Amino acid sequence: MPDFPDICMNLVRPSAPVIGKIVSNASCMHGKSASFVNHTVIDIAGTPLAGKFRAGQSFGIIPPGVDERGKAHKVRLYSVANPSWGEDGVVDHVSTTPKRLIDEFRAQRPGDDTREHSLFLGVASNYLCDLRPGDEVLVTGPQGKRFLLPAEVDQHNYLFIATGTGIAPFRGMALELLAGSKPSTSRIDLIMGTPYTSDLLYDDLFRQLADKFENFNYHIAISRESDPQYVGDVVESNYDYFEPLLSDDATLLYLCGLEGMQHGVFDALRKRNLADGYFVQKDTRLKPTTRAMLEVY
């Protein structure tokens, strides 16, 4: 069982948020895409949050205004995308990866108009993506005490598996492991799954890390182009490559992304009798073991 480091939790609660300021806010897509995802950097200098975040944790953003019931918007959580020493080495800067939500209305509750099909924008991520350098934003946190790197990072190997904006914590973790003064020598594999190549996030960074560090390996799973693959298919079709990593008791498995992505990975492990080290199936639910960290939304 991995030992996790001591961390700070709930230093700033939603009832008393602090003010951060936008440092930068720009697309982190791999070319043109139907999606819109930003890399957003926030300055939290002078607040209790400065220097308190670890890769894998999250922080809260409170959008201004009120909802359809006239109540103030609730806090929304965003994964930290930087290492513990801050974005670009600035301990007061925290980053995240918001995706704009553009969706079509669907009747879900009694009284909803079944003829209504207009488009709407999500509240928090669109608000966050619209902000400009210098704009103020209400911030809370930190949140999260288990989706973390272990205290002794070199005692473990790592398989990171992400879909979509679930890549955010792995950006911070990869930098934590490799971009510090003493890069880890552990084996680190990252699988990133997206519908299209243009949806890959931080692709240039991960390719640079793979070129620079022999112990870091970057794999992509593209599900809607020729030869479609999901993240579980990458494990299954390259079993001889992944088997030594997955069968090692020192390996930790991290999965982050859309709800359901874990099932393909579990199926790939189960076919090779490796699943019990990472998941236990209870009825229709998958329960991660102490060697698997799961965040889905």
> Order of SSEs, N→C?
EEEEEEEHEEHEHEHHEHEEE
Kindly provide the name of the CATH class of the largest domain. Alpha Beta
Shape: globular
- Determine the mean pLDDT: 93
Radius of gyration from the alpha-carbon trace, in angstroms: 20 Å
CATH topology of the largest domain: Rossmann fold
Strand content: 25-35%
* Main β sheet profile: 6 strands, antiparallel
Rounded to the nearest angstrom, the distance between the terminal CA atoms is: 25 Å
Tally of helical runs: 6
How many beta-strand segments?
A: 15
Number of domains: 2
Structural class determined from secondary elements:
alpha/beta
Please tell me about this protein's structure.
With 297 residues, the chain is α/β, with parallel strands linked by helices. The chain has two domains: 18-143, Elongation Factor Tu (Ef-tu), domain 3; 153-296, Rossmann fold (3-Layer(aba) Sandwich). Helix content is 18%, strand content 28%. It contains six helices and 15 strands. The chain has helices at 124-130, 168-178, 203-212, 231-237, 239-246, 261-271; strands at 18-27, 38-43, 58-62, 76-79, 93-96, 102-104, 119-121, 136-143, 157-163, 188-194, 216-222, 251-257, 279-282, 285-288, 292-296. A six-stranded antiparallel beta sheet has the order 4-3-8-1-2-5, with helices on one face. Helix 2 links the parallel strand 9 and strand 10 (188-194). Helix 4 crosses helix 5 (239-246) and helix 4 (231-237) runs parallel beside helix 6. The longest helix is centred in the middle third of the chain and has 11 residues, at 168-178. The radius of gyration is 20 Å and the shape is globular. The model has no long low-confidence stretch (mean pLDDT 93).
